[in-house]
Amino acid sequence: MRKKGGFLLGMALLCGLALILGGVAVLAQGSTPVINWWVIAGGGGPSSGGSVALNDTLGQPIVGPSSEGNVSLTAGYWHGTTSRSNIRVYFPLVLKGYVSGPDLVVQRIDAIGHDVQVIIANIGNTSAVDDFWVDLYVNPHTAPTRVNQLWPDLADQGLVWGVTTDVRPGDTLTLSVGDAYYIADYSQVTWPLAAGTLVYAQVDSANADTTYGAVLEIHEITGGVYNNIASTTATASAAQAAFVPAQAADAVEASRLSQARLPRRR
User: Fold this and answer.
1) What's the whole-number mean pLDDT along residues 50-60?
2) Quick one: pLDDT band at residue 247, thresholds 50, 70, 90?
3) Distance from C-alpha of 164 to C-alpha of 175, rounded to nearest angstrom
4) pLDDT tens-digit profile of 5-30?
5) Boundaries of every domain in the chain
6) Complete DSSP assignment for the chain
7) Which of 14, 44, 178, 185 could, after both became Cys, cross-link 56 (CB 3.0–4.6 A)?
8) pLDDT per residue as tens digits for the range 144-162
9) What's the whole-number mean pLDDT along residues 78-102?
10) CB environment 198-207: b (16+ within 10 A), e (fewer)
11) Contact of 262 with 183, CB cutoff 8 Å
12) Would the pTM count as exceeding 0.90?
């Protein structure tokens, strides 16, 4: 048994040596060694249907060229395949929990005794294209907390604007007393406001036909925290006694409201 085992081992060594010598002889004759393409990946392969063919590889950890001296390596099964007709296909990005919609907020309220400005913004990812109301509450008995709480329901004084322009993502809009969006018929304030007067503002404040206002916003789609209300306190102004806020003409205002797409307040 020992002799037989030694004979077999010797034959194996001779065969291996013969293969090595044969390879050296081939190289000596100028032949180029070839390493076929191969890949370590999560799957893939060729597939076809009709006139469409797809070659794919899943989970390649690295793609790109590298070299040292006269040796170069191209990593990645499809890297550098310039001889092929390559078509890149981009699959849609799927984000967990992504919601598309506008999101209107009151960015700031400036109440300086004789005047009030409300700065609103759209922090969502689509435009607010529906006309909407903005209510300002002067020293309310109860703070507003939700849609369809108009200023006369909670306070003795207040202001109203009807926004009839689109508000794009990232845009801000400053509302002032007497501007193009100010509704004098729905507003009532005794000027000047005393320093320290509590003032609230609510954007997209009213729509008698819905529970979310005129604009369906991201937080209302997802059931998130209501973020349409902000507050501040008025500050005094040295010139407040001489100031009288501008009022829109009733006829012009009535015509504008009749053409607007503002929702019902009651």
Assistant:
1) 68
2) very low
3) 12
4) 555 555 655 555 555 555 545 445 55
5) 40-91, 104-259
6) -HHHHHHHHHHHHHHHHHHHHHHHHHHHTTPPP-------SSEEEEEEETTEEEEEEE--S--EEEEETTEEEEESTTTT-TTS-----PPPP--TT------EEEEEEEE-SS-EEEEEEE-SSS-B-S-EEEEEEES-SS---STT--HHHH-SEEEEEEE-S-B-TT-EEEEETTSTTB-GGG-B-PSSPPTT-EEEEEES---TT-SS-SS--HHHHHT-----EEEEE----TTGGG-------HHHHHHHHHHS-PPP--
7) 44
8) 999 999 999 999 999 999 9
9) 63
10) ebbbbbbbbb
11) no
12) no
Would you state the structure tokens that stand for residue 178, as one six-digit string? 């007497």
Selected residue with higher pLDDT from 29 and 168: 168
Q: Please work out, in degrees rounded to the nearest 5, the angle formed at the alpha carbon of residue 167 by the alpha carbons of 161 and 171.
A: 110
If one counts every other C-beta atom within 10 angstroms of the C-beta of residue 154, the result is: 18
CATH topology of domain 104-259: Immunoglobulin-like (2.60.40)
Amino acid residing at 43: G
